[in-house]
Amino acid sequence: MQQLEVSSELDFQSEIYKDAYSRINAIVIEGEQEAHDNYIQLAELLPDQKEELIRLSKMENRHMKGFQACGRNLSVTPDMEFAHKYFGDLHGNFQKAAATGNVVTCLLIQSLIIECFAIAAYNIYIPVADAFAKKITEGVVKDEYMHLNFGEVWLKDHFEESKAELEAANRENLPIVWRMLNQVEDDARILAMEKEALVEDFMIAYGEALSNIGFTTRDIMRMSAYGLTAA
Ligand code: PL3
Ligand code: FE2
Ligand code: FE2
After folding, report:
1. What is the mean pLDDT of residues 166-170?
2. What is the 165 CA–ligand 3 centroid distance (Å)?
3. How far apart are CA 221 and CA 231, in angstroms?
4. Can you give the three-state secondary structure of 97-144, one letter per residue?
5. pTM higher than 0.85 for the full model?
6. How far is the CA of 158 from the centre of ligand 2 (A)?
7. Do 148 and 213 form a contact (C-beta atoms < 8 A)?
8. Taking the CB of residue 111, how many other CB atoms lie within 10 A of it?
9. Residue 144: closest CA among 97, 107, 112
10. What confidence score (pLDDT) does residue 152 get?
11. 43 pLDDT band (50/70/90 cuts)?
12. For the CA of 67, the nearest ligand
């Protein structure tokens, strides 16, 4: 019950907590906003799946509103300019892939990498969140598993023809996630979230996703190492 002890020692109204929260909360709001936009773009790239993808985009919009309420509840103003820059590299790569019709890369970035990042972050945050944010985040994380599942199912159904593009997109984008984790490490610790736990949960979720899609353990080991070595 170490987590509970940590949680009761947190002062959600302290200046140090609110300062860190202004960046973490902004990251999450921006991430949800971009996820909303990305699913709308994916709906255009995958007209067969349009209805489902629009449904996912609406969920992301609700998530964004939920996290905005979390910031307001603590009287924190999210630093949106910081958060926009934070997502710049992943955003640029998604846009580049969308413009060239590389839907496999778009799915890897949004439905695998970003959703696994969100799942790891939200699961680590829930035990140390204030009561209001805890309730919101518990509802959100359930949806994120569905978003991850959408990507897994589509990529599994198109595995053979997607494999090479998935490997290349992994190689290009996993190091970015590592940089993003390093960048948020100090603020996350103030919220009682340890980077090691975030990395561990991310790798478990991402590795499981790659396995569900059809990659072998050997592939997954090799693909996971790219992130680590380039960090
Ligand atoms: C996709 O549905 C949402 C994408 C959001 C990405 C979130 C990344 C969060 C990294 C920061 C770690 C702290 C999380 C704290 C939660 C309030
Ligand atoms: Fe979301
Ligand atoms: Fe999502």
Report:
1. 97
2. 22
3. 16
4. HHHCCCHHHHHHHHHHHHHHHHHHHHHHHHHHCCHHHHHHHHHHHHHH
5. yes
6. 24
7. no
8. 27
9. 112
10. 98
11. very high
12. 1
